[in-house]
Design brief:
By secondary structure, this protein is of the alpha+beta class. The chain has four helices and nine strands. The strands form two sheets. Strands 3-4-8-7-6-5 form a six-stranded antiparallel sheet. A three-stranded antiparallel sheet has the order 2-1-9, with no helix packed on it. 23% of the residues are buried.
Length: 160
């Protein structure tokens, strides 16, 4: 934990004052809950995916064929993660994005489950499982953030 705090402090010191203030606001809101607490605030399906790293069935999620303009947020804590203008149809059966709003909001972890090596993506604020990152996305990044719909909520952009 001391090592993590040192890294966070080092990163914060390298930012401009405006960036520093914004980053401190995000980082001070890191959420730590027991699994019992998560079970009381998430639906059984959300808990299974967000906390136990399960996956919803392909082509079944509410945001797979979703084309409204807005922001996709973590279903567990509300952190803004992806913009709708960076969403695309990868044909995979899950919502896919070629870029996150801010890479600091996504935690990447090596995942060796099911006999393959992948990169798991999790929320940077609450560590909830979102899905996986693959290097087969479109330009300009070449990334595919493959995300479970149940891991997300959506905030539509007010058009007025």
């Amino acid at each position: 934990m001391k090592h993590l705090n040192f890294i966070l402090i080092t990163c914060l010191l390298s930012l401009t004052p405006a960036q520093n203030q914004q980053e401190e606001k995000l980082m001070t809101k890191i959420i730590h809950k027991t699994e019992s607490e998560w079970q009381t605030c998430l639906t059984p399906q959300e808990y299974k995916v967000l906390r136990q790293k399960s996956t919803e069935l392909a082509f079944s999620g509410k945001y797979y064929k979703h084309d409204l303009q807005g922001i996709y947020v973590c279903a567990a804590c509300g952190l803004e993660l992806f913009q709708s203008d960076r969403k695309y149809d990868s044909g995979s059966g899950w919502p896919s994005f070629w870029e996150a709003i801010d890479q600091k909001r996504i935690v990447e972890r090596k995942d060796d489950t099911f006999g393959m090596t992948r990169i798991e993506i999790a929320c940077g604020r609450c560590s909830s499982h979102l899905g996986h990152l693959f290097p087969d996305g479109p330009k300009p990044t070449g990334d595919r953030y493959c995300v479970n719909s149940v891991s997300l909520d959506f905030k539509e952009i007010d058009k007025t």
